[in-house]
Amino acid sequence: MIGPRVGLFLHERGLTATAVTGRGRLQTFTLASEDNPASLLRAELATRRLTPRRARIGLQRSLVTVKALEVPAAVGSSLAQVLRFELERHVPFPPEEMAFDSLTLPTTKGGPLRVLVAACERRTVERVLRLLEEPRLKPLSVTVACHNLPALLGRRLKARRAVWAHRHGDAIDVVFLGSGELRLSRTVPAAGGSELAAEIAGSLPLLKWKDCDAVWVSGDEPGPFLSSPALADLGAPVSEPPYRSGVTGLLAVLPDADRGVAMLALALALGRRQPLLNLLPEELRPRNLTVGQLVTAGVATLTAALGVAALLAQGDVDRHYLDDLDRTTRALGPQVKVVEQIAAELNQKKRLLAAFKAVEESGIRPLSVMRELTELLPQDAWLSTLSLDAKSVEITGQANAASQLIPLLESSPWLDRVEFTSPVTRGRDKEQFRIKAAWETGPAGPAATSAALTPERAAVERPAPQRPATGTVRPRSPPPAADPRPAPAPRPQPEG
């Protein structure tokens, strides 16, 4: 169930609240300024059995600076920064303590951009938000209360340019409307018709209006203004606003006392979900869906509903189908495991084949590398892994004294920059090691491809390694030259 629509008007004499229920009933009350208005608001709502979830808050016009500014049309995305800079000359507080919003006004083609800006102190908005914490109300908007007065009007307006003077207490809010939309607002002390007429006449040039089509008067004791000759001299008919039919009945039950503030609270309750000038922080504003988004959401909801209905109608069929599918899956389980095992073996063989192909394309001769390492390493050392590429070789294994392997490997003319890649660890009877070395590529190295040496040339051209003084090193001898001729068949041995 949707709760009542609530408007809260914060003014100098206190807080006025108006609630409109779903049946069109209206309740209104005013709380005087106290130390804890949040507790009073919660108690009053409970007493009246009102359980709203959201509220629209309006500030007294005198608490907000409203200006119509002109900025270059080419500001584009930097409009907010430009407006903030311009407002520094019009507000009496630092820009970092300011909350503001803007509304783009109609402009002439090729002329400057005209923007209506509302700004107030950030602490004012924060005070309003604290007011809603104890009653557990979510704010829909924080705006200037009199800016919501057009919510009381009918949709078909004859006046294209109208001025609405609304009196509440000791102030008169003057709202300038173009085709029913906000263009400017002023506030003046509650005086006579002459002072009000002078204020209206002086504000028309700010809008580039020569005159207006109607002057509307509402609020506390509107009679003297309705009959004021000074207002009639503006050249426009003076009357009450053309309220829409549903609003007329609500206004009839408003009390005569504090009628002006109650009307503003009612305008807030009936106002737009997102007013034109909203001082509420962006992160607290409710998300406003576009027509396209609403249509998309409706289609998605309808589709989901139809899907649920189809599932319910076909529940038995789907259940039997799933049971059959489950039995088939369990029967195929052993075959699936065999196929998965074959696929895993195939992938492993593919990886090995790719590795061999990469080694072959790189020109590396693994047998030459292994032969070189076999000749260099002592008998008490053995390897567990060997990895090589076109630039280096890395070995891991065990030895009685891993530190002695470094000078042995450095003695090779093919190996360079021999070093441990991880700390040597001591096992039960041997030391674990990981060594990496770079080699000299070219005709003298084990990675040579095109100019590989024959064993005879390698024995001649390769310099004798300089063995370290420590340790015993086996003498190295070049391997015998390979005979290109095929080996003769073995002769048969005579019998007896």
Q: Would you mind describing this structure in some detail?
A:
It contains 14 helices and 18 strands. The chain has 496 residues and is an alpha+beta fold. Among the domains are: 1-62 and 121-153 and 243-302, YqgF/RNase H-like domain (Nucleotidyltransferase, domain 5); 361-450, Gyrase A, domain 2 (2-Layer Sandwich), CATH 3.30.1360.100. The strands form 4 sheets. The protein has a 5-stranded mixed beta sheet with strand order 3-2-1-4-8. Strands 11-10-9-12-13 form a 5-stranded mixed beta sheet. Strands 14, 15, 16, 17 and 18 form a 5-stranded antiparallel beta sheet that branches. Mean pLDDT is 80; it is low at 447-496.
Short description:
With about 500 residues, the chain is of the alpha+beta class. It is built from 14 helices and 18 strands.
Secondary-structure map with pairings?
Elements: E1 5-11, E2 14-20, E3 26-32, H1 37-47, E4 54-59, E5 65-71, H2 79-87, E6 98-104, E7 113-121, H3 122-131, E8 138-144, E9 161-168, E10 171-178, E11 181-189, H4 193-203, E12 214-219, H5 223-226, H6 229-232, E13 238-239, H7 245-252, H8 259-269, H9 291-313, H10 315-331, H11 333-361, H12 366-376, E14 382-388, E15 392-399, H13 405-410, E16 415-420, E17 425-426, E18 431-439, H14 455-461
Parallel strand pairs: 1-4, 4-8, 9-12, 12-13
Antiparallel strand pairs: 1-2, 2-3, 5-7, 6-7, 9-10, 10-11, 14-15, 15-18, 16-18, 17-18
